[in-house]
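Lecture notes, unit on protein representations.

Consider one protein chain, 415 amino acids long.
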Amino acid sequence: MLKISLISIGDELCIGQVINTNAAWIADQCTKLGAAVITHSVITDNKEALLSDLQRLSKLSDVIITTGGLGPTHDDITKDILCEYFDTELVFNNEAFANVKTIFERLGRDVTERNKLQAMIPKNATPLQNENGTAPGLHIIHDNKHYFSLPGVPHEAKGLMSDHILDILENIIVHRKHSVYKYKVLHFAGVPESSLADILSINDKVLKGRTLAFLPNYKGIRLRIGVEASSISEADLQIQELENYILQRASQFFIGNDSDNLSVTIGKLLKENNQTLAVAESCTGGMLGAYITDIPGSSNYFEGGIISYSNDIKSKYLDIDPSILEQYGAVSEETAVDMAHNVKTKFNTDFGLSITGIAGPEGGSEEKPVGTVWVGLSTPESTFAKKFNFGKIREINRERAVGMALILLHKYFTA
């Protein structure tokens, strides 16, 4: 397999000031090619740290990709360190400078002496044109290993990967006849992790050298199948065989493949059936609606929602009878049922989903402890609510409530 290591450079990453989204995205793209990303390294803007990592990872990797430190300010030291590591010098590159001038002309600005520094690159490097910024990407081949250096700005790093580097990596894999490693993710919901494991009864005889990882979250479980093979097509066949085995045993809990999470799958089902949805939320404060509308095109099936945090709003905008709230409370089956039914009626939709609960950390009682949540579903045929007891952690309770609401709707379609 083609072995790739990633080095992310920046004090801001090490101190937690900035989330390292570049590494996750780059690793995902490389993995889709069939390469093996073996290491993620995050280091400060420090000469010794980068030199040490380059020396260490060059012994383990076929490809090293660095991000960060290519700007025009004093703390951008990556190019100087690459020169020291490869025993070369910075030279002025006309191709890189032409890109700098083009971008500044487009912005109506003059190129300063500091900006010209962007065109200084290691003598042994090939510049990769950056369509989104003035710092070129760098490609260096040394001892049959490939080194790529990218700016740390996410849209610039992603642009350079998409425009140049992924094609280069794919050509290396083909030319060197590397084996490939491929993954596929299956999403399941409405079943505990341990129960799913019992249903599948996975063992070495079933796996046949493949890997299967259980990756639970608050909205379900992802099963990641991994296969090493001589080609992508061979890997696909091996993945399909294990996928068939899994779905024969657990299809009733299956949500979708890869990026098909609950919101994507629910959206597809609603769109395919030409049906619509509205939501009424209390303790989740709009999270359910936000999760549904994360999907482009959700306006085709999602009409809207009402965040009814207080009893007053529940009565005024969702027409919940005050006597219901007084007798049973806001967190009750009766309230959840009326919320789901009434929001469906108000928005004239086919389905209404509701969530009302005690997210915590305060507000619980012996009868209704923190983590008590009622989820209501109103369908074209009936309306009902289901009770859940999640736990004491507010963030988790809200996430689980959203997941359970969508699982309830999903079960309607798949029952």
